[in-house]
Amino acid sequence: MNVERDRAERLADEELMPLIGTKDPEAFAVFYDRHGGVAYSLAYRIVGEKTAAEDVTQEAFISIWRSGARFDRARGSVRSWMLSIVRNRAIDTLRSRAGKAPKLTFDDEAALEQRPAEERTEEEALQHETARELRGAVGSLPSEQAKVIELAYFGGFSQSEIAAMLGVPLGTVKGRMRLGMEKIRGELAEGLA
Amino acid sequence: MNETNHNGWQEDVAAYMLGALEPERAAELERHLDDCERCRAEVRWLMPALNALPQSVERQQAPPQLRERLMAEVCAEAAPAESERAGAGGLLQRAGAWLRGLGSGPMGLRPVAGIVAAVLVVAAVAGYAIEGGIGGGDEGGSTETVVSGKPPGVTAKMVTKDGGESGTLHLANVQQLHDERVLQAWVQREGEVEPVRALFVPDDEGHASTAIADMEGVEVVMVTTEPRGGSEAPTSSPIVTMPIPQS
């Protein structure tokens, strides 16, 4: 017997996953309604194109539908797990686009300042307070740290590739990544304090 | 453990978490993590920062069609399992096969799978109420009735004649239509969905009927509301769907 919608909506993600593992469409619908928006947003951010973002999101959620029972709560939250699946598929899509340039422009030192205006105006652009706070933490990075993190996470480039692109030593890239991640972590910790 | 080596690995933790380490180096680091609590602590410490990256992106509105396609695929895969659990047997399995056929069909029919799948979920959860011989005496043919959703949901009755070669579909409890919309019936044969060209509307009491001239080989009949003039493929959720038992 499938779970009813009302009951499914009251369940935590971790409780929905076993139901999805038993092929319960209602549990899956609730899961998608909770996370489909951020998943599509991430896919779009990486692939930069609506149709491809839809395909990535669809593939990711279908893979979750087919492997929901494999979620291991010891490895983090369901949401993070789901977003890592979306990210990996989006990066695969980027890499499979032979001859197509990724969305990011890395030959411009001001690349991060070239985002659309609506991205720079937080109050207009962000619909959720959580996203705004997280964005603030990411946006507070020095540009050289933000750039290597964006190229890695959203562009799917290795540290060696990034070093070659930016014309800096590999050790510099490593250091910027580490400093940037630690700074974001520090901002989040401050926000929680 | 050699402290210098440890520091070398720790320098790579952020890149590893960002997916920026080359595969061989990443595999080595994973082996190191098995034995190094300090590096595992570093991973745990940085994890919220990693999780913040995807959740900080500009929010986009996911297209509604994406949800429809996903649910179509999900329901198509779920229907056989659910029908086995419910003991419903052949009808839902056939309907599930229909959905799978639609899902792999031409792009124009992709939304249909989601639409029909949604009805199947209702059927699977609430249970199909299929009865024989209800009010079918007037035209002398066989009848089947399916209730869509909870009462007073739409009820449908198919009255066949000429040995089942043609029939008339009677609906009751149909809500009044707005925006110049009409009712359109659809039939499925061998997994292919075809429109029934005659369009119809409900009367003031919510009754509506349409003739289906060729019932030969029809496995499922459904009805949707469509824009005036009808559609080549369904564009809305079915108000009723009726598996037709095969003789």
Tell me about this structure.
Chain A has 193 residues and is mainly alpha-helical. Chain A has helices at 5-9, 13-21, 25-47, 50-67, 78-96, 117-120, 122-125, 129-139, 143-153, 159-166, 170-192. In chain A, helix 2 crosses helix 3, helix 8 (129-139) packs across helix 11 and helix 9 crosses helix 11. The model of chain B is unreliable at 86-139 (pLDDT under 50). The N and C termini of chain B lie far apart (77 Å). Chain B has helices at 3-17, 23-35, 37-55, 64-86, 90-103, 110-126; strands spanning 131-132, 143-147, 155-161, 166-172, 181-189, 192-200, 208-212, 220-227, 240-243. In chain B, 41% of the residues lie in helices and 23% in strands. Chain B has six helices and nine strands. The radius of gyration of chain B is 27 Å and the shape is elongated. At the A-B interface, helix 3, helix 4, helix 5, helix 8 and helix 9 of A face helix 1, helix 3, helix 4 and helix 6 of B.
Helices, strands, pairings?
The complex is a heterodimer of chains A (193) and B (247).
Chain A: H1 5-9, H2 13-21, H3 25-47, H4 50-67, H5 78-96, H6 117-120, H7 122-125, H8 129-139, H9 143-153, H10 159-166, H11 170-192
Chain B: H1 3-17, H2 23-35, H3 37-55, H4 64-86, H5 90-103, H6 110-126, E1 131-132, E2 143-147, E3 155-161, E4 166-172, E5 181-189, E6 192-200, E7 208-212, E8 220-227, E9 240-243
Antiparallel strand pairs in B: 1-2, 2-3, 3-4, 4-7, 5-6, 5-8, 8-9
Helix pairs in contact in B: 1-3, 4-5, 4-6, 5-6
